[in-house]
């Protein structure tokens, strides 16, 4: 599996894009603003979109993607998430007021998009690639994802705060190669991190202490304007793990 980072920022500006990753050519993990940098030819190939939660920085490209390529495809784009997340998307985005409900719009004999509910712990498989919904703790219903190629595993935390269940998954994952975990705020904003159910560097260090195996740690969702401060604090607080900053355009293989 090839994972290309389309966006990994907690905001926009300059070359910053919000969260999305392209798996091979046909799967999106979240659909933030980075999706808009793909060509039409690349967008047409996307069949599956896995959504961690309903916040705008993770879903903003779904409406535009479906509207752009629906008429060029012979099958619907499938959006996967929990029942709670899908209900929010239906009520607040695909509601004919903010955006048309493309799950009701036909392209010939098929719908332009459909929703597929997944449960926590459920694994979906496509062409030997396994994607499992894993626990996240956020201000809205949320999940993370574990990607398994059969050779190695990548865990993406989604937006989350203290989350013991995540480490239970990570500690028993087969051939865990990468952990992509958010750290949105610097330590001076720890109170905001706690209230908004994100992490700051000191909290990240507390969480990583629950991990009992070696893995390459990649940090995502840094807030613009505080990137260098937050990464320097991560180096001091969680230096044992040598976390690296996830960057747009980065490619990972598992």
Tags for this model:
254 residues, alpha/beta, 7-stranded mixed sheet, Metallo-beta-lactamase, Chain A
Notes on the protein architecture:
The chain is α/β, with parallel strands linked by helices and 254 residues long. It has one domain: Ribonuclease Z/Hydroxyacylglutathione hydrolase-like (Metallo-beta-lactamase, Chain A), CATH 3.60.15.10. It has helices at 40-44, 56-59, 61-69, 83-92, 164-172, 190-196, 201-208, 227-237; strands spanning 2-7, 20-23, 27-31, 48-50, 77-81, 106-107, 110-111, 113-117, 123-126, 129-135, 143-148, 153-156, 176-182, 216-220, 244-245, 251-253. The strands form three sheets. It has a seven-stranded mixed beta sheet. Strands 9-10-11-12-13-14-15 form a seven-stranded mixed beta sheet, covered by helices on one side. The chain has a two-stranded antiparallel ribbon with strand order 6-7. It is globular and about 55 Å long. The chain starts with a strand and ends with a strand. The mean pLDDT is 97.
Total number of distinct structural domains: 1
CATH architecture designation: 4-Layer Sandwich
- What is the arithmetic mean of pLDDT? 97
β-sheet strand percentage: 25-35%
Name the helicity range. 10-25%
Helix-strand topology string: EEEHEHHEHEEEEEEEHEHHEHEE
